[in-house]
Amino acid sequence: MAGRRARSGRGWDASPPRAGDATPRPRRGRRAGGDSSDPGDPSTPDVSASSSPASAPGRFGSTRRAGGSAPGDVASAPRDEAEVAREICLRQLAVRPRTRAELATALARRGISEETANQVLDRYDEVGIIDDAAFARAWVNSRHAGRGLARRALANELRQRGVDGDTASEALDELDETTEAETARALVERKLRTARGEPDAVFRRLVGMLARKGYPAGVAIRAVKDAIAAQSAEAAEFAEQIDADALADAEGEIDR
Predict the structure, then answer these.
(1) How far apart are CA 86 and CA 102, in angstroms?
(2) Do residues 158 and 139 make contact, with C-beta atoms less than 8 angstroms apart?
(3) Residue 139 falls within a domain, yes or no?
(4) Which of 130, 157, 191 is the last residue of a domain?
């Protein structure tokens, strides 16, 4: 285009104006909200006062007043303490069965008064939601079958969960000495399949394993001796040298 100087752009790379050219008028940008009025025109209304935070619409279309509260806000009424206590108990029981003592501890930790806690727990006792005797029986059966725990270890666990001595004894009476000895022998035989080392070291490790599970010294030593003797002729010769009664008496003296 003859006689006309090409312009490379309208921004930072635009050509400088030539002498005699009319001074370009600044372009008016649109204001927020689509308002293209001249901010310097006195006829243009000032909208800054009408957009204050006190009158701005809140979330979900609610208009918040000064002070931050919405017109429809309703203060939640305080909940009944017994209702809160029941919810705490039900959440605890949803995980696993609990003793009365365990639930009482959970309620006290959450700030429930002793009077309310007793009322709720008494009601749960009446309707059978909590039953320490049933809990103790189920605990003994499950932990003996699953972990091979003996009476002494089971009694300690029941005591830690708040089961009283008489209730725990009744549950433990269902685990007789014969069943306990058979479980000890099964545990030893399973461990012997992967045991490595000298017979004397293996013997001590297995007796220690049974002792940690709560088996009396005599039961543990006899179970290990009999299991080792059944392995091989060499192992039987080693087992023959073990005086189970003497060792059991020595272990008993150490325990006392």
Answers:
(1) 14
(2) yes
(3) no
(4) 130
Length of the chain (residues)? 256
Comparing C-alpha atoms, which of 101, 88, 100 is closest to residue 129? 100
Q: Does residue 38 register a pLDDT over 80?
A: no
Q: What is the pTM of this model?
A: 0.64
- Write down the pLDDT at residue 65: 42
| Greatest mean pLDDT range, 31-45, 51-65, 124-138 | 124-138
Mean pLDDT of 14-40: 50
Q: Do 184 and 240 belong together in one domain?
A: yes
Determine whether 256 is exposed, middle or buried from the number of CB atoms within 10 Å of its CB (0-12, 13-18, 19+): exposed
Residue 193, classed as helix, strand or coil, is coil
In a domain, 230, yes or no: yes
Question: Residue 120: which domain range?
Answer: 81-130
Confidence bin at 154 (pLDDT 50/70/90): very high
Mean pLDDT in residue range 123-143? 96
Amino acid at 242: I
- Per-residue buried b or exposed e for 186-201, using 16+ beta carbons within 10 Å of the residue's own CB: ebbbebbeebeeebee
Query: Are 194 and 231 a contacting pair, CB within 8 Å?
Result: no
